[in-house]
Write a structure and sequence with these properties.
With about 525 residues, the chain is mainly α. It is about 60% helix and about 5% strand.
């Protein structure tokens, strides 16, 4: 996964009167996980953000008792700060209350929406969106009529987090009549996340808005609105005067798999700049026609490395006949990101004859191709790589260690289960308050990684998979002890697992891993 900087409504206080937006970091996905870098074209960011918006937020994760006690004392202090006469301090307190996600703060935050300082009202609206409980809906809808555009924008964005269809009408009214472009943008974003068909007409009108940011968000929202004609309606925006709108149109057409617009995208691919080409390549990969595959194969030698990365993901996604040939050729690309994408693509479209190539990538000087090769060896079932994969458990890069855990489970490595059990004995699940850490796999800061937060779940998955086949009593007992020591909320939350391209696990929760092992044991 990559970290992107996009302009969206932020929880942070705006430094300019009348502004409701600031640069915020947004997580999203294109077609597969990849290293988080700040140099990725905004077209890829838009594609990933659009896909991320369609997913529901995961349920709150269990918090250990000690953390709850600490949060209780912190809550009291922040509630006192929220009433401070200094609007800046009260604003910061509101934002931190949102980060706690504690429902006990809701009454105070609701009251803060009537504070005379617009900074406090904006902070309270943002915090209510972060906590995202339905009881805040009516308060936020009232805040849409606030005299300050910062407050209206934050209220609209908060309603987008609630995803309540009952807010559609008030958001439509803001989109159609609000004089501030930032508020109209946030309203279009909220309507897109809600996905109510009643907003289709308003979104169509917003396609001609004077603000390119509003047009871009209207294009993406229309794609999610359920309108069967959405793809045709946004085709004309492939030639919009604003780059961000052209990118959004390509993303929408790709998500709708608009075969009728494929030729238009292919023609535009020949003349657009390097910031737009990744979005067009992704869209063509999703549409997946033979004509698209030919266009992607021609783009495999594009001078921009992120275009080549997207070509590999796109060809692997559509499983085009030429995909394996292109991936093998790009395994020796000069760019490490392309070599890593080639390895991941081979995991999906390659075969056992690629064993030597993938094993050679384990000697790549950069960690990312090594990571991709480990995932591919696991997906293709190439057990010749097991000795090297076991050694990867000791790599300094957390992303490589995570890939090795997943691959050992996928290959059902009975010899490596003892090391996995040893790691699980000392591993602990990462709670919601834990943040991604910097990975320094090659001696320098390369990426922001959440691999450590996925390690516990990956270990449980891998050991459970091996135990199902080997019925190793030690592995089963350790699984039982570790999973039995977790609070119920942790067992029932969605498992955070490694997700190489084309791979996944049918288990939805940690609780589901051990019962399978136990049933086999019986």
């Amino acid at each position: 996964m990559r970290l992107f900087a996009l302009t969206v409504p932020s929880r942070a206080e705006s430094s300019e009167p009348g502004a409701a937006h600031t640069t915020a970091r947004v997580w999203g996905r294109v077609l597969a996980p990849s290293p988080r870098e700040a140099t990725v074209p905004s077209s890829v960011a838009t594609a990933r953000l659009s896909a991320a918006r369609q997913r529901r937020s995961p349920p709150a994760r269990a918090v250990p008792p000690s953390a709850r006690e600490a949060d209780g004392s912190k809550l009291k202090g922040l509630l006192d700060e929220l009433e401070h006469i200094d609007g800046g301090r009260a604003n910061r307190a509101a934002l931190r209350l949102g980060e706690l996600r504690d429902g006990r703060a809701l009454p105070s935050l609701h009251a803060a929406l009537a504070n005379p300082d617009p900074r406090v009202r904006a902070g309270a609206a943002s915090a209510l969106g972060t906590i995202a409980q339905s009881k805040s809906r009516t308060f936020l809808e009232s805040a849409l009529s606030d005299r300050d555009p910062r407050v209206r924008g934050q209220a609209a964005y908060a309603l987008s987090r609630l995803k309540d269809r009952r807010s559609t009408s008030v958001l439509v009214e803001r989109l159609e009549h609000d004089p501030n472009a930032a508020v109209r943008y946030a309203s279009a974003l909220a309507l897109g996340r809600i996905g109510d068909s009643r907003a289709i007409q308003a979104l169509e009108h917003a396609l001609d808005d004077g603000s390119d940011r509003v047009r871009r968000e209207a294009v993406l929202a229309l794609e999610r609105s359920g309108d069967p004609m959405a793809a045709r309606k946004v085709r004309r925006f492939v030639g919009d005067s604003a780059r961000r709108v052209r990118i959004a149109a390509a993303v929408a057409m790709g998500l709708r798999r608009d075969r009728g617009g494929a030729r238009l995208l292919i023609e535009h691919l020949r003349e657009c700049d390097s910031w737009e080409r990744p979005a067009l390549v992704i869209a063509l990969g999703r549409i997946g026609t033979r004509e698209c595959a030919i266009a992607l194969a021609k783009a495999a030698d594009d001078p921009e490395r992120w275009v080549r990365v997207c070509v590999l993901h796109g060809l692997a996604e559509m499983r085009a006949p030429i995909a394996a040939k292109v991936a093998r050729a790009k395994a020796s690309d000069r760019a490490w990101a392309v070599r890593g994408a080639a390895a991941l693509a081979l995991g999906r479209v390659g075969n056992r004859t690629d064993a030597d190539l993938l094993l050679s990538l384990l000697d790549d000087p950069h960690p990312w191709p090594r990571r991709g090769a480990i995932y591919a060896l696991g997906q293709l079932g190439i057990k010749e790589g097991l000795p090297r994969i076991r050694l990867a458990l000791h790599e300094p890069d957390p992303e490589i260690r995570l890939a090795a855990i997943w691959a050992l489970g996928q290959l059902e490595d009975r010899e490596g289960v003892a090391r996995l059990v040893q790691l699980l004995r000392t591993a602990r699940p990462q709670f919601a308050s834990n943040r991604p850490t910097l990975a320094r796999g090659d001696g320098s800061v390369r990426l922001v990684s959440d691999a450590e937060s996925r390690r516990f779940d990956a270990l449980v998955q891998a050991i459970a998979r091996i135990a199902r086949s080997s019925q190793d009593p030690v592995a089963i007992r350790v699984l039982e002890d570790v999973l039995g020591s977790l609070p119920p909320g942790e067992l029932d939350r969605p498992a955070r697992l490694p997700t190489p391209i084309g791979a996944g696990d049918s288990s939805a929760t940690l609780r589901e891993f051990f019962p399978r092992v136990r049933r086999r044991r019986k």
